[in-house]
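Repro:
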Amino acid sequence: MNPIVENERIKRSRRNHASSAELLIQAGGYVSPNPYLWEDALISVVLKKPILLKGPSGSGKTRLAQSISHYFEQPMQSINCSVDLDAESLLGFKTIISNHGETVIEFVEGPVVQAMKKGHILYIDEINMARPETLPILHSVLDHRRMLTNPFTGEVIYAHEDFTVISAINEGYVGTSPMNEALKNRFVSFTVPYLSGNQLREVIEGIYPDTSKEKVETFLHISHDLKQQVMNGLLSDEAASVRSLLDAMGLAAHIPVKRAIQYAIAEKLDDQIERRLVMELVDTWLK
């Protein structure tokens, strides 16, 4: 990309920052928890730096990636990592097809190859859930080379100039493993905290504009208490998930608040003591 164009994209991200939250709420997108996270992420994309988003489940990592895709009008290819992820899941696979009466072998391109060729965003979710031996195939994609030799076809693929990689991890979760240094060093890392205070209020009122101010205040108080108990080590991170809170608000438009929170938040927790603590906190605001 021409350096002048890069500078213009950076200026655009700064110029639009003040109004980006409102636009993204309207699109069902991400709202930055501080004045610089959104802008810095955009600048990193413009500078072709692979991004690593770190934060608890429900903090908005996927929504942030979707909002970057929306902002740049750039399609996104997604990979959901697990222990079953292999090279074929990343790069594609060979299959047999019939073409004009002849049987031929065709290669079906995977998300990495498609994103590189088309200049899409490649979103790798829960990258630390993948087996460590699977990911080195991406090293040349993530560093300055931005290229890949497809082991299934022998094709050498050079990334489109707009190609971007965004990855996300939930640190310390069951089933995850620490990223090796060779992989981690290819990213710039951003911590994505839960929304709170005015930012959370902005999201709630943007998504549920017809909700009464009293109900919004109740949910904000409950959210604050849940986050406090997570910080105190009495609740799992999932209890403070913004995603779950918004699910509860959606339910609360049709059923009582207490039941909505029970279904959307408490019942997701594995520990019975934690479920009971959530509902006790709710009771203090629903007298």
